[in-house]
Design a protein that fits this description.
It is a single chain. The protein has 704 residues and is an alpha/beta fold. Among the domains are: 102 residues, RuvA domain 2-like (Arc Repressor Mutant, subunit A, Orthogonal Bundle); 122 residues, YqgF/RNase H-like domain (Nucleotidyltransferase, domain 5); 119 residues, Tex RuvX-like domain-like (DNA polymerase, domain 1, Orthogonal Bundle); 74 residues, OB fold (Dihydrolipoamide Acetyltransferase, E2P) (Beta Barrel), CATH 2.40.50. It is 47% helix and 12% strand. It contains 29 helices and 15 strands. It has a five-stranded mixed beta sheet, with helices on both faces. The chain starts with a helix and ends with a strand.
Length: 704
Amino acid sequence: MDIIQELSQQLSLDTHRVEAVVKLLDDGATIPFISRYRKEVTGGMEDITILAVSDNLNRLRELEKRKQTVIESIEKQGVMTDELRKRIDLATDSTTLEDIYLPYKPRRRTRATIAIENGLEPLAKQIMAGANPRSVAQKYVNDKVSDTDTAIEGASDIIAGWVSEDERSRRLIRRMYQRDAIISSKVIKGKEEEGLKYEQYFDFAEPLKRSSSHRLLAMFRGRNEGILKLDLSIDNDKAIDRLFESFIPNRVTATDMVEDAVEDGYKRLLVPSIENEVMAEAREKAEKAAIETFADNLAQLLMSPPLGRKKVLAVDPGFRTGCKIVCLDTQGNLLYNDVIYPTAPKNDIADASRKITRLVETYKIDAIALGNGTASRETEAFLKNINYPRPIELYVVSEDGASVYSASAIGREEFPDKDVTVRGAVSIGRRLIDPLAELVKIDPKSIGIGQYQHDVDQSALKSALDFTVMNCVNKVGVDVNTASPRLLSYVAGIGDSLADSIVRYRAENGDFTSRKELLKVPRLGAKAFEQSAGFLRIPGGKNPLDNSAVHPESYAVVEKMAKDLGVSIADLTGNQELIKKIDINKYVTDTIGLPSLNDIISELEKPGRDPRQSISVLKFDESVHEISDLKAGMILNGIVNNITDFGVFVDIGVHQSGLVHVSQISDRRIASPRETVKLHQHVRVKVIDVDLKRNRISLSMKDV
C-alpha cells in the first residue's frame, strides 16, 4: 500500500501537499509550526487537517506493521499465495485485514478445530457440495470418531466455523448491524431505585445509527454500574436468508444439515463476534464525539477574554470560614493576602469594607475577581456597595478546578509557604488577568466542561486535550520572561524539560532581551529554536520583531522592507501608512511566498496581537440568589459554563446551573448546540421549570 496515496485519498488532499507534511512531521516539525510557518509547502493547511494527516499516518504505519506480522504468520503455516499476499497488501483498515487473517489465525481449540484434527474436513466439503451426509459419513468413523452421528456433528461444526470466518459472511452481517441494528436497554430487576438517574433507559430502544453520543455513553455507564442490560439486534431471519444466498450455491441440493450448520455458525459464532465488534465501534464513535465536545469546550475556555496586565484583588467567597482575599500585581504575583467576614454568620461588613478600600488604594487595584462558589452572590452584593477610592470593575470568575490547583504540586511549588485557601484565591485572580496562562496548570478534567469524560478512552482524551492546549498556547503566544514552566512546556518544540531549563536560565541570568539569547539555554538547540521562537514573545526587547509572531527566519525580509522604505524596523512596526506602501510581491522568493508575507504584514500592522476577544462584565438578576427564588417564566441573564451534545448549562447566579436542552436553544433545528452557542457566552434565558427535589432547572433561549 502506498501510504501517501492512501492518505491523500482518505483525506481528499493533494498528494504533493500530503507528502510535504509527512516529511516535515518525520523531520520533527510540530503541528503549530507547520501550520503557521510552512504555508507555502502545505498549501495553507489548517492545524486540524495537519493533525488528521499525522493521526492517519500513524494508523496506516501501524497497519503496515500488523500486515508484516500477519504475512509472517501465514508464511510459517506454508499456505501463503500470491493472491492472498495481494489482498493483505491492499487492505486499508484493520477490520479488513483481520477478516482476511481470521481463517489462518492461531487460536484456542474449538469444536471446529477438534473436528478437523479428527479428519472430518473432507466430509464437510462433500456435504457442502451436495452429498447426502448419511451416505458418506460412515467411512469417516474411526478411533476418534465413534459413529456417523458424531462424524456429521463434527462436519457441521466445521461448516459453522467456515461461515463465521468467511470474509463475505462477516462483511454482510457487519453491514446489516451497522445499517439496521437496534440497541435496547432494560433495567436489571431490583435496581430501579438505585439506578433512578437512568430511568429513561429502563425500557428503551432505538436504531443504533441514530443513537447520539451522550445516550450511548449513558447506556454504557448504566451497564458498567450494573443497572442496565444492553442488547443489540437485527432481523435474524433476514440475516440467515442472506447467508444462505451467499454461502450455499445451490439451495435445491443443500441438505437440512447444511442449513442448520449455517444457522448455527451465524447464531453461535458470527453474531457474538460481530455484535461485540459493532458495539465497540459504536462506543468508539461515541467516545470520539464526547472527546471532540470536550476539546472544543476547552479551546473556548482557554481562549476566554483576558483582562490583561491589570492589578487585581481576588476574592474566594465563603460563609463560616470567611472570604479569602489576595492582591496581585499586573503579572499575577502575590502582593498581599488576608481574610474578611462580610457574610453570615459574622456579618462584619464595616471591617471588611475598610480592608477592601485600603487595599484598593494601597495596591492601586484596577479590578476585583470574585469566585462564583459558595457565598458568591452575597459577597458580590457586599462588594457592589463599597465606595471605592478609584474606578473598579467587578468580575465573577469560575472557581472550577481552583481547589485542584491549590493542592497540586505546581501550586505548592509556586507558594510553598501559603495554604490552599490562599493559592485558590490567587488562581481566581490570575484567571481574570490571563485565563490561558492559569488554566494550563490544571488538569482539564477538573474544570467542569466535559461530557462523560471519565467514561471515554483516557489516552485518547489526554492526547486530544494536550493538542488543544498546545494549539491555544501557540495561537496566543507566550511571554518568555513571565511564563510559568507549565505554560512554556506547551510551546511548540519546548516540552517539560526545556521549559524548566528556560526558567532556570531566566532566574540565573535575568530576563531575555532577544530571541537569539534562547540559544544560550542549555540543551535548547537549533531545532527547538526553529520550532519555538515564533511563538515566544519578548516585550521591550532589542528587536521589535521579538515581540511579534514574525519568525526569526523571516527577519531579513522585514529588514529589507524597512530598508527599501528608508526607515528602521521600529519605525515600520505598527505604522499603517508605511506598511500600505509595501508591495509584497517584490519579496517573494523560492523559500517565502505570499501566504507567509501576508502573515508578516498582518503582524507588522498589529505586532503581538492577541486573538482573544475583549472581556465584558455580566450582571446577574439582583432578585435571584437561590434556586428557590426562581419562578417559571422569569427571564434572566446567564453565562454558558458547559456545552454538551444534548444542550448547554447556564449559570444564572443561584449556585446551580440550569440546562437549556438542544431543542430549546434555537427556533431552527440544530444538530449540535455548538452551532449557535459558545462557552462563556453571555445569554438571556427563560425559566421553564424548577425541580427543587432534584435540584434541576430547565431553561430556554427561544423567544427571549
